[in-house]
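Format notes (please read before filing issues)

Several people have asked whether sequences and structure tokens are stored in separate files. They are not. Every record keeps both together, in the order shown below: the sequence lines, then the token lines. Line labels are part of the format and must not be stripped during preprocessing.
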Amino acid sequence: MMRAVRSERLTHEGTMRSRPTKEDVLWMGAGAVILAALLLVVWHFRRDEDPARLLASKASRVDLVAGMEVALSRAAEAEKSAVLAITDQDSKAFADQARAATAEVDRKRQELGKLLDTGGTGRERDLLAQFSRAFDDLRRIDDEVLALAVKNTNLKAYALLFGPAAEALAATGGALERVAARAGGAEARQVMLHAFGAEVAIQRVQILLSPHIAEESDAKMDQMEEAMRKDEDQVRRGLHALAAVPALKGSGDLAAATSGFARYEEIKARILALSRENTNVRSLSLSLDRKRKATLVCAEALSALEQAVLDEPIPGVTYGRPASPR
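Then the structure lines:
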């Protein structure tokens, strides 16, 4: 009987020890949570490494970079057209096209930045930052070029030179020739010298205006204007000497020559003001120098970024270049 009681007691104790304690239950729960977390991490990384999803992400980034390259090229072409256009209307239309294309580059740049914040490589992000710095510099130059291009001050100066100024010059010269042709008596030689001297001097002014409009250097413009002032002084002296000739008192031709020269001087002042602004010359110089170099830097940065995206490996996939032969 003692053996039976002892056996029953041992069985009861074994049963008690086989039941999980509260501590065992807590440890088991914690283990289940950790296991679930590990499974989630593994699933997350396996999902991220899905070749189809990675390939789609890469394709989106490549498309954005390619779109930026195309828009950048369109902006450059439109900017050059704005600089070379011969009317304000055309210059403004091309300038608007250039600004729209530049805005498209910026929009795609921001979209690509968002994609690289959640994907891509550190090198890709660095290259995008490099492009962004170059692009900011390009936009500052572009704003300056386009603001100048739409003014067309040099073209307007040429229009005045070969239009109203040429007409005033012809009217003045014709009047002086008539004064000289009608001179007679002892004063004829003196009248002819003053009349033809004044006509030649005003012609020299007209000749100097064309290179002045095309000139980029302010110092050279100063030299030309000084030469013009000397010739204009000669014209004034000639007109004053003619007015002192008794036989020319009340001459309609002399009055026409005097008023024609006054008109010419007024037009010439407008030409010089437009020439000094020099917007066409300056915009062309910027376009061919700083703008061209800044565009090249941006294009090279985009090319490097595109290649970096293409070089990003995808397990089991080759993209953008043939697989290496075995």
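For reference, the curators noted about this record: The CA atoms of residues 263 and 320 lie 69 Å apart. The chain has two domains: 56-150+283-311, 153-277.
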